[in-house]
Every structure is written in structure tokens, then in C-alpha cells.
Amino acid sequence: MLVDRRKAAIFGAALVLRLLLWILFPSLPDLLTGRVEVSTPVNSFKRLQEGLFMYTRNVSPYDGGVFHQAPLLLPIFSLLPNAREYPLPTAIFYSLVDLANANALVTISDSGQALSGRLHSSLRKHVRYDGAAVAAWFLFNPFTIATCLSRSTNVFTTSGILYAISNAASGNSVNAMLALGFASYLSIYPALLFIPVVLLCYDQRVQKKKVSTNAAVFAVQHFGILLGSVAGLLGISCLVVGDFWQFVSATYGFQLLVPDLTPNVGLWWYFFIEMFDSFREFFLGVFWLHLACYVGGLTIRLRRQPLFVLTALLGIFAIFKPYPSISDASLYFAFLPLYRHLFSLMRYTFFAVSALLYATLLGPAFYHLWIYAGSGNANFFYAITLVWSLGLSILLADTVFAALREEWEQDNPELRGKDVRQV
Amino acid sequence: MTTPAALPPLPFNPSRVRSYILRLPLFTRLVLLAIFAFWILELQKIWSVVQWGSLTPDEIGLGSMYRLNTYPFIHMGFFHTLLNILALTPLLERFEAEHGTLTSVALFIGPLSTLPAGLYLLVEKVILHRNTPVIGASVWAFLLLGSEAVRTFKSHPYFSIGSYKIPTWTSPLLACVFASVLIPNTSFLGHLCAVLVGYLLGLGYLKVFVPPEKILRWIEGKLNLLGRLPHYVSVDQKTYGRYGVLPTANPVGDRPTPLSYLGSTQLPTRNLRRNPHFLFIRLPYLLSFLCIVVGVIWLLLLPLNEYSRRTYISENALLPGQVHAYFSGSEQNIFRGYKKELEGLLIGGAGDNGGEDGVSGEVEVTPEASEKVQSILRAAGLKVATQNYEYTSAGITHQGQNTYAIINAPRGDATEAIVLVAAWKTADGELNTNGITLALTLARYFKRWSLWSKDIIFLITPDSKSGTQAWIDAYHDMHPPSVQPLPLKSGALQGALVVEYPFDHRFESLHIVYDGVNGQLPNLDLFNTAVSIAGGQMGIGAVLQEMWDHDDSYEARLETILRGMIKQGFGYATGAHSSFMPYHVDAITLQTKGEGWQDEMALGRTVESLCRSLNNLLEHLHQSFFFYLLMQSNRFVSIGTYLPSAMLIAGNFTIMAIALWMRTGYYAGSSPSTSASAPADEKKETAQKEKDASPAKTDASGVMERQLALPLTFVVGLHLLGLLPLYIFNNLSHQYFASAVYTCILADILLPLTLAALLTHHSPSTSTNAIPQHYLLIKSLSLLLLGLFLSTLATLNFSLSFMIGLLCAPLTFTNRTTSTSVLRHIFSTIGLVILNVLSPPVVLVGGCWWAGVSVESVLTLAAFGWDVWGVWTQVVVWCVWWPAWVIGCALLGSSVF
After folding, report:
1. H/E element holding B609?
2. R_g of chain A computed on alpha carbons
3. Which of B795, B800, B872, B879 to mutate to test the interface with A (most CBs of A within 10 A)?
4. Which of A195, B132, B422, B491 is deepest in the core (most CB within 10 A)?
């Protein structure tokens, strides 16, 4: 039981590290909660507190236009003691969510879907990390820790996505759809993952049961389950808040129409600040279309590796979604160690990682110059968010290249190790 | 490249010249580089290279014997340099190709420059009793010409012009005569001496100076010079005796053909892409070194007129000096009256006020004096309030009481305010009675004006270190519990002026202090306004950075910049104004200096005019620069011009990190395909690399997988370990600081060695000559982080980043050495000693010793800065510099084990 002991040690160490940070640096969580890189209008813990305050006093939490998160979070958090006076229960709760997320990652890793699936089988199966290492990568990633300390509600979306994928990878297609429904209910964009998740479920089903059901029927059935789960959650939400339309426009409307242009690490805010209002609707459509269009292309091109499609899509979301934060990036980074066998095929890892590191340091520095020192301006910070996105895109493009290259080597075993030119 | 047949072939073939230049051997290159470098050095005017290194007969003594060797490298101006380089290159190249690099080094550094010099000195000084300095490489050119002439003489004794037969050995003499006739300022005697020594060389009399071949071979083999140095001409490779002359007389041989320098053909053509050794190992060092050199030169260029700009007022609303200042006449009587009243209460301690530390000083502000100030302000019709504060840092308690009063703006809505500060004790610890009195007089005077559109706050603090900090913190509700909140507040602060007048006689000029905490600077417009009002309106000179006699020369400008950079880099508060800066309130201190004819009324008028200018502001100062280096009260460099220098220095670490990373991943894999074309000496190297690569997994595509766990843990762990000294030095009591520093120095000697031993112990045992992958990875990651931190820091505090970058520069070049055990031990021990001299605590001790202050006081100030001002220089030192230094030391130390 060596592996289990390792896993337990890693999980324990991660938990202790989080709690230690919480206890030793009591001001750190509040500092992180205020950072624009970590907290966005749709996942900020401060805004959640505001909504909670109104909720516990029987005022509609969406009055006042501060709270934009799903209403089901409110009863959950009202069970916890006040985070200001008793921070520890909240800390433990968030740490446990992180551990649960890591556990889902272990399941994904153990399923081996990254290495071989129904339609593909990697040439470098021996090059892999075990589940514990993948979990450690996720748990000790500074971005994950920062997200956890800042108590961003994004971690729940992350759990939804991770459990959807882990269930899909281990063949529980119904649970996968339910988890995906939960994630989509919290923030809309995970719904875009439906097609690759369904493909993953389908592949698993066929591989395990050896009977090929009709793919279209399978997809429609599962779409039904997804719709059902979202509808169920919305129904429960109606019980929590009275005014259904106010809730929908404050949460989903807010995420779709992007009215709050507070700076964040993404690309939308500066663009929409600079834009004339008359073009706003058009470009909203274009931006969302741009985000959605990757799903089709990647799914078709990488049909043989649905898990890799999911990874790439998570990377794309971390770059192009309307209110990204570093927690989205940390979710993407969590999937990368599953593809250790591709690392040797990647060409620009060092450059991409350096760009990300530079952006990580320069971002807060420039934000300080802009907001506090007054000696910089918005362009400083925006330039750094561009570098950040550039670093992520290079990493993403590089992994996609590596995956394609590996597929190509599977198809052309005689050309392994030869130089190729992509045309 | 085909020339049309009709045209004659070009006599000058560029590609041939290029290949010729690319084939130049090592020593020739070094000589040319040195000559060029000295020419560059002459461009600056601080230090006369010519005077330093020329061969001046009268200057030669035991201490200046170096001149016998330096004079050939130094030239007078561009054309001198160019002509000598053109003359010397072919001759020297040929000599080196014939005799090998080592012999050339031994001869040219030694006898071939000292002998002609000695001969010249003998003739010039002893016989002729003259004193003509000589410089220039022409001495070598003529020397080599002489030896060539002897050689030619042996094969072709004469040329015949008509019926005359002229012996060929005279040709250098003729050249010497022509040169002295045609070119002005050439030393005939010097050239003659050189030609004579050349004859001796050619005739073989100087053979005794050539080191024995056996020794040369041994050195070459031991150091593997052939494999390490590019363009090196080996003892074996040299075309020894091919031309049949030197040093063994071997007269048979073919006549040298002047255009084909056969000697250099054995140097392999070095195609960069096919030479991974050069690309991955040599080139990064060169690039990094170049980055550092260019970075430093860049900074040295800044004081020139071409790179700096004159200051100008960017914010039009300020209108400096456009109003008449009415503060004069009867106000002086009030000033005297107030002063008398205050002095009456202060008698006793005013005599000796040398005490530095806040409370223990003799001039404790008596409660009566403070009461008096309050009553004067109240009598002038202002709202008065007080604030008590107390800070504890390094076991010392600083406490005091701020008194402040507010004039409500008759024409404003109390949303904006200007602050006028006078501290009882100036930044230098002197008693500031005149400053306080002036502030009180101005308060009474300002109160009667109806034109203020901003509130004016008069703040009287007991000292310049902590008082303003407590007040400004409390003003923004950011104060610690030991500081009282402010009972009375006004609007957003637009600017702050601090007045210091710590003596009783009249003053000459105003010293403007502008550095803020953590290197933040006030908007340049505020500084410019002060300079233009003081200089233009009042006729008082303005000086900065304690440059009392600034003559606007290059040296003075550079010194001003450097002083500014040092203050900015340390990031401590230089006066009462510094505490305002973190809150984005622009502030300066006006200090009176010197003995002149300006009285307190002139200072008062300056302050009045400044307040009137600030009163005009429509929005917060934002137009002008926040990042600048001032070199004179009316000249500055802006960030766009100076930032590249720190960025280049930070970039050198990143370049090295990238190169090391690529070396760990690709170099080993890619070498087999290229080794066929690589020269023999590099095959050995690549073979080692492959052996080194074998424990790691090598992929079919020739890419090696990197083992990152150990390097990552090591680097991150050390950076976290930096928190420990940071905590200790900020929380110790002040009397333990000195011993803590010495403990730290000792720990810094031991820690890297321990780490090195651990690393070596746990590393897979490979051949001793290769550097295992994880050493390279550790260095790569550490340098990557260092480059990252420093380039980020350069945007926040340019000077600190620049200084730390320079101090860390050796870390790029240290590595685990891979030579035989004796040399390795020697090299690494020397390296460790040098690195230990550059360790943070040693640098601190050295800096303190140089500046003549005690380590304890510096560290007490640093701890005070950390606790009160929020200085984070320590974080940079302990969490950026120190870990990088430890890693560099550990890598170097690992070669001992």
C-alpha cells in the first residue's frame, strides 16, 4: 500500500500547508480576496459575503447589483459560521474542497485515459506520473493555494468539472452529466464541455461493454440528463430566491453580457472599456462565438483523445472566458501532468513558463504602480495580462502540437523521431 | 558572386576579408580587442587613460612599471588606433600562426614590449635628457617588420632599383623614416628602438625569452586549452619554422606569399549551427558578459547631453513664480517674537544636539514648547489638534506628539489640502527652531489670505523619522494600534513641503531632498516648481544630493546620479517628506545650506510661492515623470532612457538560464548527429555529455527528459529559507545586531559547503569531468528566478535592481568546474573566497566600513524602516539576492567534493 500512503501524505501535507498559511498569515486570505487576479466579480468571496448578509436578513441577495453568484451557494454558506469572526471552518471547508478536487484528479489519472483510450494508444505509455504526483502537482501549485486562500467560489465550478471528467473517465456517464450540470449551473461556460465529455463517456461505454450503441442516441439521452440536472438545480434555486428572472439576469445575464469591466487577467475588460457602445452587442457575440467555436474544431480534430480535448478546452477557457482568474489557469495546469508523455515533444515549455512567471510577478507590480503608486496607468497592467495570455496560449498551442505529433507518430511508426514540418 | 568578364576582378574582395577576419587567431583578437577597449575608455573624460598608461620617461618608477606593458595598447584618438590596427593585424596574425598562442602571449606581454620600452627610456632619458611620452601599437608593428625584414634578407638579400642594390633589411628603417616625415607626432626614436629589437628577434638573439616547448605542451594539455579556447593556436598546430627563420635559423623555405596566410588555415571554419558546444556553452557566457558591460556603459552614458533632457514644467496650472510673494517686512518681527518665545522654553538642551536616536537626544521637545506652539496656532485662528504615537523597533521605543493645525480654505470645499511640515529635529538630527518658527509665522500669515482654494495643514512633528509617518498613516486610517487616530482631518492631500532651517545665520542655497521610501519619487513637476521658484523668482540657488559645488561637468553629473541611485536603492526615508510618498502624496524637503545672504524671509517667500503654485492645481500632480534620475537641478533622464541598463543586467541572468535549460535538454541529444562535423576536440566533450546523459532518459528524438524534482525543491526551499534571516534581522534587539551579522557571515561560509556536500553525495556518480544535469538545472532555475525578480524590481526600484544585479553578476559565471582535481580545488577555493566577499552580510559590513558607520546603526535603521516606514529592501536582499548567492556558492563549492 505504498501508493496509498504517499497519497495520504500528500493530501495531509496539502491540508496542513493550507491551514498553516491561514493561521500564520491571518491577513493573507483577505489580501488575496482583494486581488483582481484572483477574485473576479463572479467568484469573489467578498461579494458572496455581501449576498449572504442580505440573504440571512431576508432581502433578495441580488438587490444592489453586487452579488452575481448562484443562489444555491447561499444556504450552504449560511450553514458555516461567519467567516470574519471564525475563519477556520471556512478555511477547512475550502481546503477539503481542494482535496476532493485532487481526489478526482487521481481518479482521472488512474483511469489511464490520457495514455490510451478506445481509439488511441500512446507510444510512450511508460512515461507517466502516478495519481499521487498529479494530485501533488495540483495541490502544491501556488495558483491553487492562492485560489483556496482567497476563498474564490470558482473552486466549486472546478469540482463540478473535475468530477464530471473523472466520472466520465471511469465510465459513470450519468454521474458525469450530473456533475457537469452542477458546474454549468454555477457558471455557464462548463456546458461547452458537454460534447467532449459525452464522447469520453461513449468511448468508455463501448470499450467496457463491447456493444456499440448509437452515438447520436447516447448523446441525446445524456443531453437530456444534463438539462434535467440543470433544471433541477434551477428549480431548487427558485425556492431559495423568490424572483426567478432577477436571479437569472443577475447571474447568467451578468456572465453573458459582461457589464462589469473590473480589471482581471483576461482579455475582455480592456477591449470592452475601449469599445464604443454601439458595437458592444456585436462584439459580445463575436467573443462568445470565438470561445465556443474551439469546441467543434478540437473535438473533430482530436476525436481519438476526448480527454485531451477537455484539457485543451480548459486552457482555452482560462484565456478567453469573460471573467478569468488564476484559478482557471490552475485547473488547466492540473491536467498537464497527465500528459507527461507529451512533454518531450513540446518545444517552447521553457519560454511559455518563463512568460507566465514574468507575468505572475510583473502583474501585481504593475497593478501596484497603476492603482497605488499612481505612477503607472491601465496600459501597464493590460500589457501584462497580454503576456499572461500569450504564455498560456503558447503552452496550449505547444501541447496541442505535441498531441497531434504523437497521433501522427502512431499513424506513421516509421517516421518516429524524424523532423517534420507543419504546413 | 560572379563578376562580369569585362570588368577586372576586384582587388578588394569582401568575402575574403571577412573570412580573413573570422580566421584571426586568439591572441591577435585579444590584442585588437584590448586596443579597441582602451580607445573606448579614452572617450570618457574622468580618467585619462593616456596619462595613466603612456610610456613617459619621467613617470617611470617602481610603482609605474606597468607602463612598460600598457603603452602599446593605448592610442591617441581614432585614426591613430585605426592605422595601427591595420598595420599590426597581418603581422601579428602571422607571428601567432607561426609560433602559437602561448608563445605569442609570453613574448608580447613580456620582452617584446618591455625591451623596446627599456631601450627607448635609456636613449630618451639617460642620453638625450628629454621627456617625450610615447604610446601606440606601432612599436609592435615596427618590431615585427624588423624581424620580417631579417627573415626576408636571408632569402632575398637585396632589391635592386636600377643598378643600386639595397639590402632588404633596411626596409623597416626606410618605413620608419617615411612614417616620421609623413605623419605628424610620430616618435622616430621609439620606432627605431622597436626596429632594433625586431632585428634582434629576427636574428634569434631573443630565443632565451621563449618558454620551452615542453612546458608549453604541459600547460596546454593540463588546461585543455585547445578544447576550451576558440581560435587558439596550439604548440603543435603552429607552422613552426615553415617560413624558415625564427627562432631556429632555418634559412631554407619558401618565400611568404603575402596574401595567403597559410598559418591560419588549420583553424576550422566554425559554423555556428553545427557547433553546439559554442552555441550552448560559449555563446551564453559571451552574451551575458556583453549584457552586463553594455548595461554599465549605458548608465555611464546617461549624464551626456545626448541622453539627458532639461527639466520643464509639464503641468500648466502650476504657474511657478507668477505671483508676487508678500511675505516680508512686518512678518519678520512676528517671526522674531515667536522665535524668542520658543527659545525661552527650549533652553538647556539646545547646545549639544548630536544625538541620533529619537528619544535619547538632548533636545527633547518640552511639553511647554509644544503647548506654546499650540497656543500660537490657536491664537492665529487655526483649528489645532495633537496626536500621540509610539513605535517600537529593534528594542528601541520611539514616541512623540504631533501637533497640527488646519486652515480651512476660504474658496474651497475642504476636499483637498496641502501640508506644510516642520520637524523639531531635522533629518540630520539638528534642532530646527527657525523652521518651526517660520511655519508658525506662515500659519498666521496664510490665515489672513482669502485666496486659498485648498486647505493648508501645518504639521509640527518632534522628529523627522517617525512623526510624519504616524501622522500620514493615521490620516489615511492605516495606523497601527500604538498610534492615535487623528481627531481633525481635511481632504485629499495634494502635496507636502517640509521646511528645515537648523541654524541661526543666513543661508546661501536651498538643498532639495526628494527621495521617498522604497525609491518612490515625487512627481518631477513639484521638484521643478521648487527649483524654478527658488532660482528664478527668489534668486536662491538650488542644489540636490548634497552636491554643494556642482560644476555641471560629466563627473559631477554622474556623481549626482549615483548618489541619487544609492539613496533610491536603499529605499530608506531621507527626510520627513519621505513618508508621504507611499500614499501618493508628492512631497519634498527644503533645507537651507551654506553661509550666504538669504534670510528666513526669503525662505518664507519661497514656501509662500510654492504653496500658491500648489494652490493653483486643478488635479493631483500627474503630468510629469514619476521615474527619473536627476543629475543637476535642471537636467534629468527619464525611465525610458535609463531602464534598459538595469533590464540588460537582469536579462543576462535570463539568457544564462535559457542556455542552461537548453543545454540540459537538447545538447546531449543533438550532438551525435553533429559530432561528425564537429572538430576532434569537441568530440571528446560531447562524448562526456552523452555519458552524462545516460542516467536520464533519452528519447528517440534526441530530447532528454529533465529530472526537475530535486532542483525545484532545492531552489524554492532556499528562497523560503531566506525568510529566516529576514525575520531574525527585523526582530532582534539592536545590541545583538553586530554579533548576528558575524554569525551570518560564518553561516554563509558553511551553508553552501554543506549543501554542496549533500548535493554531491546524493548525485548519481558519473564521470568526474562532466557536470551532472541537476547542477545545471539548479543554476538555470536559480538564475531564471533572479532575472525575473530583478526585472520586476527594475520597474519599481531601478537602482536597487541595478545594484543587486551588479553584485550578483559573478553568479552567472560560476559553475561546478570540471577540470583535474588539483586545478579544480584551486579554482573553486579562489572562486569561493571571491563569492564570499560578495555575500550580503560581507557587503553590508564592507559598505559600513567604507562609509564609516557602525553595522549596528545601519541594521537598527533598517529594522526601523521595516517596522515603521514599510521598507522592503530587506525582502529583496534575503529572498532574492541571498538565495541566488547561496546557490551560486553551493554549485561552485560542489566541485571541491
Report:
1. helix B600-616
2. 21
3. B795
4. B422
What's the pTM value of the predicted model, to 2 decimals?
A: 0.71
Residues B237, B229: Cα–Cα separation, whole Å: 14
Whether A347 contacts chain B with CB within 8 A? no
Q: How confident is the model at residue A242 (pLDDT cuts 50, 70, 90)?
A: confident
- Per-residue pLDDT tens digits for B486-497: 998 888 999 999
- Comparing CA positions, the residue from B676, B452, B628 lying closest to residue B527 is B628
pLDDT at B255 over 70: no
Residue B216 · residue B100 · CB < 8 Å:
yes
Nearest to B645 by CA among B814, B809, B873, B883: B809
A304, three cell numbers = 481519438
Identify whether the C-beta of residue A171 lies closer than 8 Å to the C-beta of residue A205.
yes
pLDDT, residue B664, reads: 78
**DSSP 8-state secondary structure symbol assigned to residue B137:** T
Residues above pLDDT 70, as percent of chain A: 97
**DSSP bridge partners of B159:** B166
Active site residue B578: no
Q: Say if residues B631 and B345 touch (Cβ distance below 8 Å).
A: no
B584 CB within 8 Å of a chain A CB = yes
Instruction: Judge whether B824 and B897 are in contact, CB under 8 Å.
Output: no
In this structure, are residues A176 and A197 in contact, taking their beta carbons and an 8 Å threshold? yes
Classified as helix, coil or strand, B578 is helix
Q: Do B584 and A361 touch (CB under 8 A)?
A: no
Domains of chain B, each with CATH number or no CATH: 14-251 (1.20.1540.10), 316-347+364-633 (3.40.630.10), 709-894 (no CATH)
Q: What is the 3-state secondary structure (H, E, C) of chain A?
A: CHHHHHHHHHHHHHHHHHHHHHHHCCCHHHHHHHCCCCCCCCCCHHHHHHHHHHHHCCCCCCCCCCCCCCCCHHHHHHHCCCCCCCHHHHHHHHHHHHHHHHHHHHHHHHHCCCCECCCCECCCCCCCCCHHHHHHHHHCCHHHHHHHHHCCCHHHHHHHHHHHHHHHHCCCHHHHHHHHHHHHHHCCHHHHHHHHHHHHHHHHHHHHHCCCCCHHHHHHHHHHHHHHHHHHHHHHHHHHCCCHHHHHHHHHHHHHHCCCCCCCCCCHHHHHHHCCHHHHHHHHHHHHHHHHHHHHHHHHHCCCCHHHHHHHHHHHHHHHCCCCCHHHHHHHHHHHHHHHHHHCCCCCHHHHHHHHHHHHHHHHHHHHHHHHHCCCCHHHHHHHHHHHHHHHHHHHHHHHHHHHHHHHHHHCHHHCCCCCCCC
Cell numbers describing residue B653: 541572468
Angle among Cα B553, B556, B561 to the nearest 5 degrees reads 125
Instruction: Tell me the β-bridge partners of B129.
Output: none
How far is the C-alpha of B320 from the C-alpha of B609, rounded, in Å? Answer: 7
Query: Would you call B476 an interface residue with chain A, using a CB distance cutoff of 8 Å?
Result: no
Q: What is the pLDDT of residue A105?
A: 92
Tell me: pLDDT of B681 over 70.
no
Cell of B119: 631601450
CA distance A391 to chain B (A): 15
Write the residue in B662, B705, B789 that is nearest to A361 by C-beta: B789
Neighbours of B287 (CB within 10 A): 16
Of B138, B187, B490, B780, catalytic: B138
How many alpha carbons fall within 13 Å on the CB side of residue B235? 17
Interface contact flag, B705 A366, Cβ < 8 Å: no
Q: Tell me the three cell numbers of residue B67.
A: 607602463
Answer yes or no: B191 catalytic: yes
* CA distance linking residue B390 with residue B830, whole number of Å: 49
Instruction: Give bridge partners of residue A121 from the DSSP assignment.
Output: A116
Residue B457: strand, helix, or coil: strand
User: pLDDT by residue (tens digit) across B155-164?
Assistant: 777 777 767 7
